[in-house]
Amino acid sequence: MKQVLNFIDLTGKERRLLIDTFVLLGLIRLGLWLLPYGTLSYLLDKVRQQFFNYQKVSHIELDKILWAIDLCSRYWFREVKCLAKALTTQTLMSSYGYCSQLQIGVAKNRSGNLEAHAWIENEGKIVIGYLPDLSRFTPLTTWSEKES
Asked: Which of 63, 85, 90, 103 has a CA-to-CA distance to 143 between 20 and 30 Å?
């Protein structure tokens, strides 16, 4: 009940951001499960162009986007993995006119198994996906979204 009251106390813009984030996070998780990455990336570009253009006229602070990602990830039905969070963050940042770089890195864990991790950088700073031992991951590639 407390969460419902907290939601009602938010501004209309914040409620809209939370709803958009929650839906987008779910669609991206479903897309990662069902689609090849190239297809999902193409569809996310279409979403950015078609459905979020109206958001460019309203300004949302980057901290609010990160707050929405964190909050929605905590209340999602299952654990949200780093790639889903990173893609959701990148899509929202692009929708609100922020530049971002999606980084995907790999490393071997203590057992010698391969691990992967995704994170988002903005102006050289990690905005989501920070790990204390992130330096052990070797970036494989970067996908940039430019401010438009």
From this structure: 63
